[in-house]
Design brief:
The complex is a heterodimer of chains A (257) and B (269).
Chain A lengths: L3 E10 L8 E11 L4 H14 L22 E2 L2 E2 L21 E5 L8 E3 L2 E2 L2 H10 L19 H11 L6 H5 L6 H12 L8 H15 L8 H5 L7 H20 L4
Parallel strand pairs in A: 1-5
Antiparallel strand pairs in A: 1-2, 3-4, 3-5, 6-7
Helix pairs in contact in A: 2-5, 2-6, 3-5, 5-6, 5-8, 6-8
Chain B lengths: L32 H26 L6 E4 L2 E4 H10 L10 H31 L14 H4 L1 H20 L14 H9 L2 H28 L8 H27 L17
Antiparallel strand pairs in B: 1-2
Classes of the chains: A alpha+beta (257), B mainly alpha (269).
Bound molecules: protoporphyrin IX containing FE, iron/sulfur cluster and FE2/S2 (inorganic) cluster (FES).
């Protein structure tokens, strides 16, 4: 038997990018405690629709923690109070009957609100476009294990590649810095043999694109705490190292070194 | 760059601050935030080196008077003279000391300039939450770097006026070269001691975060000793605080007293 919860929600409503936003209070009644946070919002939205009101717009897609689409600020924490989970993986059993929950969109100057809880995260795409690729020969795929990869490098790359690009790191950062996301994307490729040809160009291009949109890291560490994939701060240090080196190496490559 | 896949208006990949024309190496490092943080870490390390040696040098206060060329002198006064005569056969007197001073001033200027510009960059990147934030990792030290930094820099100016320049408005009894007596007479006043203690607590808090942050900014990260980085920062901050706070306490408690240096022959008994 699952129990149900009655909750008070304070939800950020904003009609469009240029409209002024405001908090609105909703009652979420009879929420089963095995519902996910997004399902709870679904229930509230059903109610709003039945009463002829505009439902709350919130970002979501896979609802299993792999796509990186969902993500809202829940009581002042990105993706809510559970560690290592996305908003879609947060369950209502983690809340108590009678709780008041404040729900706000990600906030950063580079993440303008599209509507309600949905923000435009396309600057993160710009960072990927700047260097999130490798030079690979086209044609038939090579044999498996053609390129020997040290176990440690494979593990490190895998840990970095776990990033789902949700933007919680930016949302949680007091400086709106995107270091955790960018460093995960840089290190995912820079740690592997396949990523070596563009290693320093990648570090340079991705960091400099990041800085056109986001703030500067002051090593608070909020990002890693908020990250649904628990991406490590270590990658930020690796990215810093590769970036500083890139200024020297890229000159050498250009024949000026 | 490829065309944006989504154009929803407003952001749609329009930079907040477009990339500026790149200056030649190594100036281009200082044009980016990651480069500036690197400079901030290097200059922070230089300032940290100064703070450590300054505190260690001041411990000579406790050595009291020693015999020097048949005269009794305060050991710390000798130390001051030693600093002025650093590398003397190679450099004329005080030249090397001035070299160090200019290095520190340059580091200080760069440290503050990068702190200032990065703070502005962060403010323009940010958009405030309307509901209450719940901090998980940011601590008091990391969130107050700018405040502690400003307190420390204001204090440094006061400290120089008090003990280096001997401005008569602040320290009327100051005399050139009388390091021991100047220090004790100045810190023996409760309000100077209070400023001194407050500023050193701010410095300790600044170093607690700064010395950890420095490792990340410089890319000094190795799984072997990562677990030590926090302890090194805390240890440094604590050790510096203990040394620095001991001076006003010892002076106010009368452990060390101003006066003429005496080396008594009975002292060995
Ligand atoms: C005018 C005075 C100062 C100001 C405004 C200032 C400001 C700052 C700021 C804003 C940071 C960045 C904090 C962060 O990364 O979160 C920082 C870092 C640092 N500061 Fe200072 N500071 C000052 C003086 C000093 C002094 C006197 C020392 C020497 C002990 C020092 C040592 C450091 C260190 C080691 C770092 C770490 C650098 C890094 O993470 O890249 N600072 N400072
Ligand atoms: S680093 Fe973590 S918080 Fe940041 S975008 Fe990737 S998964 Fe999300
Ligand atoms: S909806 Fe895909 S990660 Fe949450």
């Amino acid at each position: 038997m699952s129990t149900t919860l009655n909750l008070t929600l304070q939800v950020w409503r904003q009609d469009g990018p240029d409209a002024a936003g405001r908090f609105e209070t909703y009652q979420a009644n009879n929420i089963p405690d095995d519902a996910s946070f997004l399902e709870m919002l679904d229930v509230v939205n059903e109610d709003l629709i039945e009463n002829g009101k505009v439902p709350i717009e919130f970002p979501h897609d896979c609802r299993e923690g792999i796509c990186g689409t969902c993500g809202v600020m829940i009581n002042g924490r990105a993706h809510g109070q559970e560690k290592g989970t996305a908003t879609c993986q947060l369950h209502m059993r983690k809340f108590n009957d009678g709780d008041t929950i404040a729900i706000e969109p990600w906030r950063a100057a580079a993440f303008p609100v599209v509507r309600d809880l949905v923000v435009d995260r396309s600057p993160m795409d710009a960072i990927i476009q700047a260097g999130g690729y490798i030079t690979a020969p086209t044609g038939t795929g090579g044999d498996a294990n053609d390129t020997p990869i040290p176990k440690e490098a494979a593990d490190s790359a895998m840990d970095a590649a776990a990033c789902i690009g949700c933007g919680a790191c930016v949302a949680a950062c007091p400086n709106s810095a995107a270091q955790l996301f960018t460093s995960a994307k840089v290190w995912h490729l820079n740690s592997l043999p396949q990523g070596q040809p563009e290693r320093y160009k990648r570090a340079e291009a991705m960091v400099e694109t990041m800085e056109q949109f986001f703030g500067s890291c002051t090593n608070h560490g909020e990002c890693s705490e908020a990250c649904p994939k628990e991406i490590s701060l270590d990658f930020i240090a690796y990215m810093n190292r590769d970036y500083i080196k890139s200024k020297r190496f890229n000159r050498k490559l250009a024949g000026q070194g | 760059m490829a065309a944006p896949t989504l154009a929803r208006g407003k952001s749609a990949q329009r930079p907040i601050r477009p990339k500026r024309r790149e200056l030649p190496f190594p100036l281009n490092l200082y044009q980016t935030a990651v480069g500036k943080k690197w400079v901030m870490a290097v200059t922070g390390l230089m300032l940290l080196g100064f703070v450590v040696f300054h505190a260690l040098g001041n411990l000579k206060l406790y050595l009291g008077a020693v015999e020097h060329n048949g005269e009794a002198v305060w050991d710390i006064d000798l130390y001051g003279e030693f600093l002025r005569e650093l590398l003397v056969p190679l450099f004329p007197r005080t030249y090397f000391l001035w070299l160090l001073r200019f290095g520190l001033m340059g580091a200080f200027a760069l440290h503050i300039h990068s702190a200032f510009t990065l703070t502005r960059m962060n403010q323009s990147s940010n958009s405030r939450y309307q509901s209450k934030r719940d901090w998980l990792a940011a601590n008091f030290a990391s969130r107050s770097m700018r405040v502690t930094g400003v307190i420390v820099s204001l204090y440094i100016v006061f400290h120089l006026a008090d003990l280096t320049w001997g401005l008569s408005a602040i320290s009327p009894d100051w005399e050139r070269g009388e390091i021991y007596n100047n220090l004790i007479l100045s810190l023996g006043r409760w309000w100077v001691a209070l400023i001194y203690i407050g500023a050193n607590i701010a410095l300790c808090i600044h170093i607690f975060h700064g010395a950890w942050s420095m490792f990340q900014s410089l890319g000094l990260n190795n799984p072997r000793w990562n677990s030590l980085r926090r302890s090194v920062a805390a240890g440094l901050a604590g050790a510096i605080l203990l040394m620095n706070l001991s001076f006003p306490i010892a002076i106010l408690a009368g452990v060390v007293e101003a006066g003429e240096p005496e080396v008594s022959l009975e002292s060995n008994e």
